[in-house]
Amino acid sequence: MASGAHVRVDGVRKSYGGVAALAGLDLELGPGITGLLGPNGAGKTTLIRILATLLAPSVGEVRVNGWRTADAHDRVEVRRRLGYLPQDLGLYPRFTVFEFVDYLAILKELDDVADRHRRVRAALAAVELEDLAGRKIRTLSGGMRRRVGIAQAIVADPQLLLLDEPTTGLDPEQRMRFRQLIAGIGEHRTVVLSTHLVEDVAAVCTRVMVLWQGRARFFGTPSELRQLADGQVWSSPEDGQGAFASWRTETGAYRVLGERPSPAAEAVAPTVEDGYLLVCARSREEAAA
Amino acid sequence: MKAVARIEARHLARSPLLWLGLVLAAASVTPALWSTWPVLAGDDLLAYQSSLLIGIGALWAGAWLALRDRISGASDLLVVTPTAPWRLWWSRVAALAAVSAAVFTLLFATVLVLSAARGGRGLPDLRLLADGVLGVVLSGWVGVLVGRLSGSRIVALLTGAGWYLVGMVAADFWSQRLSPVLLPTEPPSAEFGLLPDPLWPHLGYLLGLVLLVGVLLVGLAARGDGRRPLPAAMVVAVVAGLVLTGAGGIRLVALPEALVPLGPDRVDWKPVAVADQVVLSDPSFAYPEDGRARSCAADTALSVCVYPAYGTGLALRVHQTVAPVAGLVAGLPGTPTRIRMVPVRLTGCRRVGELQIWEQTLRDLQPRPIVAGYLTCALGQSDEPARPASSARDARDVVKLWALVASGTVTSQELQQLSEQELWDLQVGGEQPSAAVTPALAMAERPADQVRAELAPLWDRLRAGTLPVSELPGQRP
Lengths: 289, 477
Known about the structure:
The complex is a heterodimer of chains A (289) and B (477). Chain A folds into three domains: 1-81 and 159-221, Rossmann fold (3-Layer(aba) Sandwich), CATH 3.40.50; 89-157, no CATH class; 226-288, no CATH class. Helix content of chain A is 35%, strand content 26%. Chain A contains nine helices and 14 strands. In chain A, the strands form three sheets. In chain A, strands 6-7-8-3-9-10 form a six-stranded mixed beta sheet, with helices on both faces. A four-stranded antiparallel beta sheet of chain A has the order 2-1-4-5, with helices on one face. A four-stranded antiparallel beta sheet of chain A has the order 12-13-11-14. The termini of chain A are far apart. In chain B, 58% of the residues lie in helices and 5% in strands. Mean pLDDT of chain B is 85; it is low at 185-195 and 258-275. Chain A binds chain B through residues 49, 52-54, 72-73, 75-77, 79-80, 82, 84, 86, 88-95, 99, 102-104, 106-109, 113, 152, and chain B through 1, 3-4, 7, 11, 68-69, 72-83, 88, 225-227.
């Protein structure tokens, strides 16, 4: 079985009209699932698109298995090993589900018809669309279309799988199955998952990167991200004035992220989301300072 | 990439835009197909000319194909595949070409089968099929080009409309020959078939354009990708395209009012070099005897001869149409005893005893122009200079209308309801042709044999135009 891709990002910057979407990023990825977290505009999609060879960095270099994405010949080699699900997924509404995935599989150089059709069926089965293979895409719901997108991304068994907001529109059961699918792929492949859903990252990712204003503010395991919030999360009868975040929970107590809000507050176990919120809050403070 | 082409072809074959073009083309062909005498060597032209409409459908289908990625938002999915964009686009435009060509071929074959089923004979010109195929392929590829460059459906729709105008509105200009479909021009045109055949240069011209547009499409797809599409093949295609387009275009422009040859039975086609100006301006011009009108129907009073491609069926039909009128004036001095099909746009007595009628007029199966032409000839009005506007009635017009009624070509009631324009179409002259109706109806009240007997001694004066209406049979003093 082929292994996952080795991705190396060196000093990548990307600017749009003077606004930096990525402000100097270094990164090295191997097999496993890397979650990208960050608020809107943090640079997650820009990074994914650069890794997908859709965008060229303004500065810096990206290599996949040693191939430089800036080089036309190397770029083709990268694309041969790439699966990509864009955030704004576009499909051909008049195509059937099978036709569309088959069409992309042809472009991914799966030339043997029998093998290609077997792979298409397997990809559709993996996203539980095999029964809808003959349905026109225009008749599918948003969640089903998203699954078609996932199927086309995995059909050629890519070494590097880039997924931008893959679980948007999926119901909880489908999200659970998606996690199972990605977890299986991530055992041997390199997967980069951009999402707003921290629980997805916590559930399947082996590494997580938090981006904020184009910079990596954290890179480590989900456990390490969670541990950042150790001693910073409280259950308090009072609202946490001056805390990073504070909200009322179903018990009536406040969950406070930051300094202990009152002597009556009790420390509680942090989650990955707490760690993420803490990183964002500190980044915001640093920027303000 | 054949697999991509197959998938695209499957979808294009279901494209409503392409089918719209086919339906419009079929609608444009059907009335003409049913209202004219069937002949394979003429109906092929009918089918060919409809390729303009199929081409517009192909143009729109091509534009929609080009816009699909952008509109659906699927471009990113395609870009990140290892397939070179030019290969993808080549597969797509090849599929478009194959389907457009198949649609036109389907129409062309259907028209010929229907024509044959109605008794049509002769040899179709397969160059028209090739020219039509190139025309629709070019149209489709131009649509792809417009879609890719403009990114707008509205621009694509307008381009389709413009494409139609290039073909139709410009029909009276030499530039029409540079459009995707050659159309015969309306008068004052040259006569079909008498002038140099424009089809070969047009085929070369279209092939050259197809090559050039194909290179443009492939080049456009390769732009920014870094992978060049077969440089040697591209250079060959560009050179061949420029040479063919240039040579064909120059030849087409240089042709003197060249049109598509419409003459049937091209196997024994012997063109006669006659300039159209002569046909139109010289009243003494007579189409020479070329021995081509060999399928005849005859009785003692009249023979009708048409080209062999029509068989004797059309000759019999024309004979049956004219015979009742011919019977009324048979034997009188100057009446034609022969009707001959000619390839020039004239209806007239240019040779003694012979009425020459343009092939298309005979094919149209409209009896009135043929009968009116016969009577005009018999009454000596053929090729007279136009009469000055006058309210004076010409006795010959009265006799012409009488003969139409007496022969049953027109009923008395119909004659009274004919408009001035319809009377002019029957070659009844003067400022107010309806003035001839009342005396004609008065003549028609009398038995035809009696009128004929009374007209016989007056015939020479009548033909000379010196007989007053008051002296005609049945007129009150």
